[in-house]
Amino acid sequence: MSKTHVTTKVNGDEVEFLCDPRETLLDVLRDRLNLTGAKEGCGTGDCGACSVTVDGRLVCSCLMLGVEAEGKEIGTVEGIATGEELHPLQRKFIEYAALQCGICTPGILVATKALLERTPDPTEEQVRYWLAGNLCRCTGYDKIIRAVMDTAAEMREAS
Amino acid sequence: MKYYKPATFEEAVALAAGADGVTRILAGGTDVLVQLRSDIVTPDTLIDIKAIPGTHDITRTGAGGWRLGVAVTGAEMSEHAELVRDWPGVVEAMDLIGSTQVQGRATPVGNLCNASPAADSVPAMIAAGAVATVTGPDGSREVAVEEIPVSPGKTSLAKGEMITALTLPPRGENGGDAYLRFIPRTEMDIAVVGCGVNLRVKGDVITEAHMVLGAVAPTAVVVHAAADALVGRTLDDDALQALADLAEASCNPIDDKRGTIKFRTHTAGVLARRAAQIAYTRAKGDQA
C-alpha cells in the first residue's frame, strides 16, 4: 500500500511524515513523530487520553486520520511548557496531586488549556462538563477540578 | 483503503460512483473512524469532503433560513449565536452528542448518514423541517431529512450519491423548538429516548406543531397527529396529556440493556410534555 506524504505543524514546528491512510493522527504522533504524550486509552473517542488541538479545536487524535493533518496546526501536551518552565496547569496538577497513574493527565492538560483559553473564568460545572470526555480512573476527579479552578484564578491574576 | 480528498463535489460524486467495494464519506469521522478501528466497516474507498469549498460554512439562505455545509461541526453550531437564536432545539440536540472532543469533529450530516435510531440531532432536524441536498451522478435533489434513514445503519442514498448541504427553513415569527433526551447519566451516553418539538404560536394559541421521537423505533418517528392535538389550543394540561398519550402510542421500541419497552414508552410521554413546554416558552419569546 502506498503511503501519503503529509506536511503539518506540531507545537509550532513544521513536520513532514509518510503514513498509511489508515493510520490515525495518534498513531502518527506516537509512532512516527515520537511524541508519546498523547495516549491511546479506548481508541474510540470515549476516554480523551489522546486529546490534542487541531487549529485550536480540541479533538481526539484517535478519531482523526494522520492524512487529515495536512496543512493543520496540531497542539500536543509536549508543547504546553515553555522550555524548562512548566505551564501553570502543570504546576498546579503537581501541587494538588491531581494525578496518580498519569495516563489521562496529558489529555486533561491539553483539554483544560483549551478551556481556559476560551473561558478564563469557568464555573466548576463548566469545567466538569468540558472534561466529560476525559476519563480518569484514579483520582475521582476532585483534585483535577480543584487544580483547574486554582490555575484559572492564578492565570486571571497574572493577566 | 484508498483515501481521496477531492476539491469539488463533482469529483467526489465521480469517485463514489466509480468505486468498487465499500465507500465511506469522511467528514468528522466520529462514526467512520470508530467503525474502521473496530473492524466493523473497513472502507475500500474513503472520500474526505472537507477540502471542498463551502463545506465548513454556516450561511443565511435568501429566504432567511440557514444552509449548513456538510463539514460543519457541533461546536461550530453552538458557537453561532444567530443559528442558536433561530433553532435552539436543533443546536442543543447536536450539542448533546459526545464530549467536547467529539463536538470538535462531529457533524449533523454524519449523524444523519450514520442512520442510528438514537441519533440525537435527527428528530430535532426533522421537527424543524430540515432538508438535505443529495447530489449524485444525475444531479442534485432536495430530500426531507426524515427520508434519509430507512433502517438502522441504512440510508436511502443510492450508490454515488452524497449529502452536499443541509438547509434549515426560515424560523419566522413566534416559533420555538426544543429537544430533550433521556440517558441514565448526564453526559457521554446514547439516547434511550429522544424527543424534538417545534411549535409556532399566535399569542398563547398554537398554530403549528411538529413532534418527532428518537430511539423508540428503527428510525425517528414523526408524530403527525401532534399537529391535530395542539393546533388551535393553548398548551394547557389537556393538551399536554393528549401529546404525551400520542407519544406513547407512537413508540415501537426494543427491550435492551439501556431501557425496557415499558420504560422507553413511558419516558417518551414525559419527554414529549417537557420538550413541548420548552418549545412553547421559546415560541412565545420567553426564556426557556
Q: What does this protein look like?
A:
The complex is a heterodimer of chains A (159) and B (288). Chain A has 159 residues and is α+β, with helices and mostly antiparallel strands. Chain A has two domains: 76 residues, Beta-grasp domain (Ubiquitin-like (UB roll), Roll), CATH 3.10.20; 71 residues, [2Fe-2S]-binding domain (DNA polymerase, domain 1, Orthogonal Bundle). Chain A contains five helices and five strands; from the N terminus they run ββαβββαααα. Chain A has a five-stranded mixed beta sheet, sandwiched between helices. In chain A, β1 and β2 form a beta hairpin. Chain A is globular. With 288 residues, chain B is an alpha+beta fold. Chain B has two domains: 153 residues, Uridine Diphospho-n-acetylenolpyruvylglucosamine Reductase, domain 3, CATH 3.30.465.10; 109 residues, CO dehydrogenase flavoprotein, C-terminal domain (Enolase-like, domain 1). Helix content of chain B is 34%, strand content 25%. Chain B is built from eleven helices and 14 strands. In chain B, the strands form four sheets. A five-stranded antiparallel beta sheet of chain B has the order 4-5-10-6-7. In chain B, a hairpin with a 5-residue loop joins β4 and β5. In chain B, α5 packs antiparallel against α8 and α10 crosses α11. The longest helix of chain B is centred in the last third of the chain and has 23 residues. Chain B is globular and about 55 Å long. The chains are: A alpha+beta (159), B alpha+beta (288). At the A-B interface, β4 and α3 of A face α2 and α6 of B.
